[in-house]
Request: fold
Amino acid sequence: MKKFLLCVLIAAMAIGLASVPASAQQSKKAWTLMLYFVPDEKIENSLIGNINDIAKVGSGADLNIVLMFDYASSKPTTYYYVDRGGTKKLKELGETNMGSPQTFYDFIKYSMTNYPAERYALIINSHGSGWESYYGGGSVSTGVQLDSDINISPAYKPVDFSGTDLSGLNTAIAYDDDPSDCLTLKELKKSLTMAAKNFNGSKKIDMFIADACLFAMIEAAYELRDAASVLMGSESTIPGTGLDYRSIASELSKNPKTDALQLSKTIAKNFTSSSYGDNILVGVNTAAIEPLAVAFSELATKILKVGGKRSFSGVSKIGDVDKYSDISNIADSILKKEISFANDPAYPEIANQAKIVKEKLNESLSAFSASGSFRTGFGGISVYWPDKTRYPKYKAFYKALDYSNKFQWDEFLDSQLLGLSPQAGDVRSGAASLVSELDGAFFSLRRNSQLNEKTSVTNESAKIEHLKKTIVDNTVTAHKTGNYKTVHQTLRDIRNAKSIDTATKNKMINDLKQGVGPSSK
Reply:
């Protein structure tokens, strides 16, 4: 049984949740684990089973476990504190829209305020469908307000599925059937970053885990790169029994000093060892997602230069609908020449870039565990690659994601699925991608220096010098041709880059000023 909409629940015995009033406001502990559980009637018993499992360990001297459970039945949505042997009721909310970012934000606010910790992990346990939504255009909720009441009843409007309203962007997690709503990538990002700013000293949450299907996508990891240090999820479906919750609580109780990177390894290992069939779970170090994003975008750019019709016979699809593909599988299909352009003069360069993609993908993972058919041929992170009928329905929404805004994969989809040339699509300034690539190169340089990889350090250093010069030259040219928008965007990208050091940023900006001359605007 998998956690997707059209599934049949395997019969299971479940112990009811105990309800004993408890007072809040605790002293700071090592970890607070926040559980956001959104079942429908098909998976409710499985989620209650997860709570029974984690309650076998429960909270302790170094661990808080706070739960928000939205019953599929007529029972009210309730906050619980999970102790050893049961749960204590903290607050009863009534019927609540769990697909509302306000509801999500308020739960994080409550948990961080009343149960502070040195580190935070948050798990959403629900249906999931990747970045696309079952409900079409996405969220129907209003946005997050800073000072809302905890039992807010968010207003909502009918879903606009025309593809023109970008206010609700798909991600497909935390599905609430009443009203028909879900949390989107944009809503997750805003809720998490606002909570971090207001209640965690602007430090992003240590770990975000999607115990839901199809969430481990490059689009999700990139969107949430500033919201969580480690992102965990599966690029495939997840069994209805979900994660091994008892082992998560046990690890945090026994080793409270463990960090998110190490915790992700334990969670991934225990997930596949306790599950049967074809399963995969990864941890993504979001600090390392930029180099992968740059490398994969560069692969798309190089493929776009191949003329004629391109076919990829070796690329397989993930899930019940053919819309997601494994990034490592795409790279492997190129390296194995399971493509139509193996004899193209550009192939050697494309193949070399495919190798770089696999390298950067492996570097981005903090954990990887797979069973069954996922043991070989899969890297753990997928990308959106629908058919030509599906893509136009979601194209406008997809292009509004951070990954699409900054990189070139959506232009590959435009070309591959719709026959659009890069000039006919929404082509972004090449400078934006170059700055992103430079940022990724600086990250890789530091990583390789720490690992004492001298050859890689030399290569990255040469790449950095080339990129710095190219960015300055291209931006000066843009200024001379009156493309001031590109100039301003490049300056913003340089200032906002996370891995480029301040001295390099200042040097590049000064070079730009000298290049455009004293009369520059």
